[in-house]
Amino acid sequence: MNNLSKLGIGLLVCFAAFSFNACKPKNAGSAVSGDAAAKAFVAPGKYDEFYNFVSGGFSGQLSVYGLPSGRLFRVIPVFSVDPEKGWGYSEETKAMLTTSHGFVPWDDLHHTELSQTNGEIDGRWVFGNANNTPRIARIDLKTFRTAEIIEIPNSAGNHSSPFITENTEYVIAGTRFSVPLDNSNGDVPISSYKQNFKGTVSFISVDKTSGKMDIAFQLILPGVNFDLSHAGKGPSHGWFFFSCYNSEQANTLLEVNASQRDKDFIMAVNWKKAEEYLKAGKGVKQKASYSRNTWDESTHSGKHEMLTEVMTLDAVALKDIVYMIPCPKSPHGCDVDPTGEYIVGSGKLAALIPVFSFSKMQKAIAAKDFEGEYDGIPVIKYESALHGEVQKPGLGPLHTEFDERGNAYTSFFVSSEIVKWNVKDLKVLDRVPTYYSIGHLSVPGGDTRKPNGKYVVAYNKITKDRYLPTGPELAQAAQIYDISGDKMQLINDFPTIGEPHYAQSAHADVIRPNSVKIFKIEENKHPYAAKGEKESKVVREGNKVHVYLTAIRSHFSPDNIEGVYVGDEVYFHVTNLEQDWDVPHGFAVKGAKNAELLIMPGETQTLKWVPEKVGIWPIYCTDFCSALHQEMQGYVRVSPKGSNVPLTFSLGKNSSDPKAPENNSNSDSTKK
After folding, report:
1. Per-residue pLDDT tens for 657-672?
2. Phi, psi (degrees; rounded to nearest 5) at 114
3. Contacts of residue 182, Cβ cutoff 8 Å, sequence gap at least 6
4. How far apart (Å, rounded) are the C-alpha atoms in residues 57 and 109?
């Protein structure tokens, strides 16, 4: 057994002992000091400096926090149904969660990525990945809503995404699990991994104006596992770098069989060269079946469409697209510094951090300074691409980001710490403990050309002794450190939604001025919108009943409906007539088996209800809207199927008031 293999086993033993014994890092029980806490305090009524977009992991959602306060602002529904907002329950949003497998109500959102222009965060969109059923989502930061979701064919386990180029030309996604391609015979023995399993990396183009996503091309690659990635910038713009593991191409007990080699790889992709091959007609179209779902802001509705082909490039046949660089085994992070010159690989089982040089890599490629090939891909000699190694930085390096002063910050999962080091001279400058098993970390703009080196945020997996206990499941957590000085200083921590993996932050000034406050009622193009109470009505079409319902403080119109029969499909199309910022209305009906609706000012959303029993069924507003919120209610009478109860609706007609108007009110409350 060689020394590196012994080191890997030793680290695994250390990790096991650390996990099961829950050994505390130094000063684990210490609280944030008063002067440090003051740096994180944001007074009531004051704004945070940054929006922090945090992946929700197994929740499938994306959460938005403020930095440095750690206050939770919003949970944005993306890949999982959300009854609070009706996401995946309203008729309009169901299309957004439809895939080639049908309606999928859950996924696993691991990473977030903010759009960039000239290598700087521009505040237009944030992208998120679906790990389980491979998809990429684009969230519009004017509305903080999911605007588009595209499925990725020829992929399995979309952990390795979404990563963007410095002008958001592409969102990049690599497959975690190599599998037979979609158009091949998938009924093959698992033991035929090396012969039949392939890896893919998808380049998804993003329209500069609309943001619309298309799969521009896919690279067909050897069957390895792809992990994290970052694009080149500045001199390395036009390249992309991925960490790869399981170069052994094992298919069982990977914790042992995928750690046999001393080194795995950093994969360098020349995507500009790939574009040239596409223009030269070297691409091959393959049949595929995958969905694209888009949100229409004018109709407040999602649209689902199926796409049927994808363009592919064979990276083995076209040898000058992809190169491998040896890297310590089982790398996780693959990070590019703000200058675009240095690429950091993080081998999870290594006790050092290798830093590669883009210019040295280019010289090695030009000189064909290779040590051979890996499944047909040229392998650059380790020393030929190496800038240097950070020696003895800690145990279990995972992920690195940067400040604007030439420093790097790396998370260490096993030793539970953040280590600060200088990129050029590779000297360790500082280290701080985390609580307990840190995964990713994030510096605002820390993977861009212009980082804001004021804070680094740690995203931790375990919080023993940190918060009040809540049964066997502990809170996931984030910790904020001030990095503006020579030494890192813990200033705040806060629990997070789901399991935080990666996060990115944008300065508030980049996003806040463009945030949409209301939807203009006159621009509402929903086919069932009622733009005033005079347009509210109930219409029967066979066994379908369409209720054109309006909501305004503090009543629905109509609020009494009769003539609905058991088994009818009742569609409540609720239009919020408010034109004041932050006055949503909710809508629910007793016994509904889906969820409520949450309707923003000027918006229309639809709840489908199929009554199963005769009786009187209340409807009511679920979101506090005024002092008379409790009075915002109504009734639906359900009669036996086949009865002759006429369809009627009214507002303001009490049984003791025969002079009250029938059907719609003659008043128009939109001016209230």
Report:
1. 555 445 543 333 333 3
2. -85, 145
3. 153, 154, 286, 287, 288, 289
4. 5
